[in-house]
Design a protein that fits this description.
Structural class: mainly beta
Mean pLDDT: 89
Strand content: 35-45%
Radius of gyration: 22 Å
Number of helices: 1
Number of strands: 33
Low-confidence stretches: 1-42
Oligomer: single chain
Distance between the termini: 40 Å
Helix content: under 10%
Largest sheet: 7 strands, antiparallel
């Protein structure tokens, strides 16, 4: 440890201990100059008092990336499963969509964070109706996937001297549609996959997918036949050609043989999710390891069960699914759950989350493998070594902004960003036209006591 860093750490500890005397309230906030190159230009230090000890977490001030993100159905904040922000050796990047020429001809923008907190646009292109995905290869090459003119397209390039040259290519074996429900994911070796979904009107559906293997310099394509359409997919390529998918069933009521309630305007029912996996995608088809659904009943005719909140593969290869449900099994009350499944499909945990965790929660790990849950109310829950045992939360400073649908975008490993003690976060706010950024440094975090049930 350098003398400068040691001195800074000692200063932080002294400030933390003095805060108990200086601030009699539960939460004390102070500002100081950043000492880490990752945290320029300044830090907001939030200190939660437990007994006589002030426990700090480190969060940058909120930065406004844009006020022109497209709103409404299929707008920039729609979905939640997309990869939206990455951190590479060149810095932090985010991709968002703007109005363009209309509902089906929106455009994407790629922005690069500067040391002064500004976000200049360095590349742009056509996105189609839906938000784009942003991925980062280990060498820092950035990839944006979009669907202009109903065609799956990828743009790739490596930043150099504050500029980037993006080359485009057609993604093979993708659905030709304005509603592809596109999804993408990257592994630590630079292998990445792009999915699109088919179906919804009746029984039957498919995943159309293509995975690019950089060592072989080729695309590997497959079409996976399904019983129904599944959307809002979380895609996890893994080393040695493994692949995992978590996705929510999204079909018309009559496709499942259900009668839509007379007062129900929405023609589609989302009441199930599945987890698929293959141990060798080149030769073995994906296998469904679990299906969870909430069926309509006379008393509860409008069930809801989705895994749209989040899915995450941990350092042990276990799948974490954050889902919400409502129906007969919950007696009509909305519940939020965290399910953990082994790579072989064995159920390890299925715990109900505290009500205050609420909508738009996400799960992630730091470099030491410790888990955290972050929710749209700005609460950060340390979640131990397994992700399911929550400690008392920290309250983040979201200033005047409210987190809107579909919640936070995080620089997690499926974006191509390696595990780190620094987490980069973006979220939609106001009417979702604002795209907001902040960063967390978890290096100094001390876990709080567990929540008592």
């Amino acid at each position: 440890m350098s003398l400068r860093l040691f001195t800074t750490n000692l200063f932080l500890i002294i400030i933390s201990e003095l805060s108990y005397l200086l601030y009699p309230s539960h939460v004390a906030t102070t500002k100081m100059a950043a000492v880490s190159g990752n945290l320029k230009p300044s830090l907001v230090v939030t200190q939660t008092l437990i007994g006589h000890t002030a426990i700090p977490i480190y969060q940058t001030k909120l930065e406004l990336v844009t006020t022109k993100a497209v709103t409404g159905d299929g707008g920039n904040s729609w979905g939640g499963h997309q990869t939206r922000i990455v951190h590479t050796q060149d810095g932090v990047f985010t991709a968002y969509t703007v109005e363009g020429r209309g509902y089906l001809t929106r455009e994407w923008r790629l922005a690069w964070r500067q040391a002064d907190g500004t976000w200049p646009i360095i590349a742009k292109g056509g996105s189609g109706r839906e938000p784009v995905n942003l991925l980062a290869s280990p060498d820092g090459t950035l990839h944006v996937t979009g669907w202009p003119n109903r065609t799956g397209t990828i743009w790739s390039g490596k930043p150099m001297s504050n500029t980037i040259q993006m080359e485009s290519a057609i993604i093979p074996n993708q659905v030709n549609d304005y509603w592809p429900y596109q999804a993408a994911g990257m592994d630590g070796q630079g292998n990445f996959c792009v999915f699109s979904s088919v179906g919804g009107q009746k029984a039957g559906g498919s995943f159309n997918w293509a995975c690019y293997l950089p060592l072989q310099k080729q695309w590997l394509t497959q079409t996976s036949k399904l019983d129904y359409r599944f959307c809002y997919s979380y895609i996890f390529p893994q080393p040695n050609n493994q692949l995992s998918i978590v996705s929510t069933r999204d079909v018309r009521w009559e496709a499942l043989g259900y009668k839509k309630p007379a007062d129900k305007e929405f023609s589609y029912i989302l009441n199930a999710f599945s987890y698929w996996r293959t141990n060798y995608q080149e030769t073995k088809p994906i296998e469904r390891l679990t299906l969870q659904e909430e069926v309509p009943t006379t008393k509860f005719p409008e069930p809801w069960l989705t895994a749209q909140l989040d899915a995450y593969i941990d350092t042990k290869g276990q799948m974490h699914v954050l889902y919400n449900k409502l129906g007969a099994t919950t007696q009509g009350e909305r519940e939020y759950h965290h399910k953990v499944i082994s790579s072989s499909g064995k159920l390890l945990y299925d715990v109900q989350l505290p009500t205050e965790v609420g909508e738009f929660s996400r799960i992630f790990q730091d470099k030491q493998g410790r888990f955290y849950l972050i929710n749209s109310a700005g609460l950060l829950y340390p979640a131990g070594e397994d992700g399911v045992h929550l400690s008392q939360p920290f309250k983040l400073n979201l200033e005047k902004y409210k987190v809107k649908y579909s919640g936070f975008g995080l620089s997690v490993p499926r974006t191509g960003t390696p595990l780190s003690n620094v987490m980069n976060v973006v979220f939609p706010s106001d009417d979702s036209s604002k795209w907001i950024y902040f960063q967390l440094d978890l290096s100094y975090l001390t876990y709080l006591p567990l929540i008592k049930k």
